[in-house]
Amino acid sequence: MDHSFAVRKLNMFLAEVNRQIEAIDENPNAWAFPHASDHLLLLEAEARMIENAYKPDLGDYDLLANERDRWANARRATIQALAQARSADEMAAFLRPASPSIAASALHPWVWDPAAPLWAAQAHQDAVLTAARTVNRRLQQKLARHDIGEMDLCMQSFDPKPPAPGKPRLRFDGDPDTPTWRARQEGAKYLSAGAFLGIRNLAAHEETVTWTEQEALEYLGTFSVVARWIEECSVKTAP
């Protein structure tokens, strides 16, 4: 519903109604009440449709009442509809279920601690890149592997295959023989690799990205998930 249109139309009608009531009150002869103009009647028809749109039957006041009562009823209905039209957007926002919010400072410290100074300087691309690099270094340190990193290391470290010499694995708790455990390992494998491929590489190789602040924050959140998984998992090495 176009609330601004409704406010404009109702205000026009209310101004005319007020003039009509003033004219009636100034006339002591009940039989000489001024007749409503065609313009006022046209505005009334529009206003009644708008009033009924905001509240059923609101605009269905008595048209056969005496002139003073008729326009007083019209005025009351218009004021009620105006109150709803003027506050409709704010009320909708007030009544909307509260959405959850994530504080950037609550992201994993491997992500937010290095990103915070850059974020404060509005360098969102650099903040994401720095966070990604920090997560990569932490992964290399945990696995004691510095020969590879980022996407390749994620693919190998979360792989459900048994660890091989020189290729330790990250393992979630749980029963490795269950589909749920394998799904979680595979999910971490591809999500973490995708984060480096789709986010880190773009931040590193594009001179300027078109990310909004919200998008950049979501990308930090993605690396925060990866960081938590890395920290949560235990390292398994080949016998």
How are the elements arranged and paired?
Elements lengths: L2 H23 L12 H17 L12 H29 L13 H12 L3 H20 L6 H8 L11 E3 L7 H27 L7 H20 L1 E3 L3
Antiparallel strand pairs: 1-2
Helix pairs in contact: 1-2, 1-3, 2-3, 4-5, 4-8, 5-6, 5-7, 5-8, 6-7, 7-8
Question: What's the short version?
Answer:
The protein is mostly helical. The protein contains eight helices and two strands, in the order H-H-H-H-H-H-E-H-H-E.
Q: Gyration radius, to the nearest Å?
A: 33 Å
What is the count of helical runs?
8
Q: Overall 3D geometry?
A: rod-shaped
Structural class: mainly alpha
C-alpha termini separation: 69 Å
Residue share in helix: 55-70%
Mean pLDDT: 92
Detail the poorly predicted runs.
Answer: none
| Largest sheet report | 2 strands, antiparallel
Order of helices and strands: HHHHHHEHHE
Strand percentage lies at: under 5%
